[in-house]
Amino acid sequence: MNQRKISASMMCSNLVDLAKTIDIFQQKKIERLHIDVMDGAFVPNFGLGVDYIRGLRDLTDIPLDIHLMITDPEYKLQHIGIKETDIVSVHYESTYQVQRVLDRLRSYGCKCFLAINPATPIYVLEEVLDYLDGINLLMVNPGFAGQKIVPSTLKKAEKLQNFLREHNKEDIALEVDGNITPENAAKLKMCGANIFVAGTSSIFRGTVDDYAANIDVLRAAIK
Fold it and tell me: Is 177 a catalytic site residue?
């Protein structure tokens, strides 16, 4: 996963323009569609669900990047409809059984990512690095689009890059999620980020007619 990729945050898309949006994403070769699944318990919001995921798969072959912001995900994975082509992120903070949920997630053949909130220290990753294909580093507190980046997360991304290097785990992908403006993306690529979750701060700015140009700007920033 060394090539830098865009994962389009679908909670930011307008359902009225969904088909046109997907068409633009296919033309612009967007690598992933980021699906925020929220249960109203782990985060104070309700997000995209199983039916949305199923319908989206009927619209496009773009692989999904499923971000589970739900409590006790180990007991709910079977309802998601996970495919081998998916990235699936579970939150360290969402369960007391982090190793168990990662073990169960790996049985689906997907890429296994662990998400951590801005205030969660990096050292919690150490004992589960062998289970991970990637880390989803939250740059905002999860639950709502349109937030400003937590300033300390920029330094945290740099610390995480060093942490992975020290543990000989530089092959683990680093995804960054939350207020990924082109400017922030340019900083984060220098910290080893290679998957950029793009929402209202970048590709979803303006109307659907602006999306293609917005994607070009973000591509240039992460080049």
Answer: yes
How does pLDDT run across 140-180, given as a tens digit for each residue? 988 677 688 899 999 999 999 999 999 999 999 999 998 99
**Residue 78: which domain range?**
5-222
Which member of 17, 36, 65, 210 is catalytic? 36
User: Can 103 be counted among the known catalytic residues?
Assistant: no
Cα gap 71→14, rounded to integer Å? 27
> Hey, what's the torsion of the CAs at 87, 91, 94, 98, to 10 degrees?
80
Q: What is the pLDDT of residues 18-62, one digit of tens each?
A: 999 999 999 999 999 999 999 989 988 888 899 999 999 999 999
Task: Catalytic residue, from 23, 39, 177, 216: name it.
Answer: 177
Give the domain CATH number at 214. 3.20.20.70
pTM of the entire structure?
A: 0.95
- The number of distinct structural domains making up the chain is 1
CB count, 10 Å around CB of 164?
21
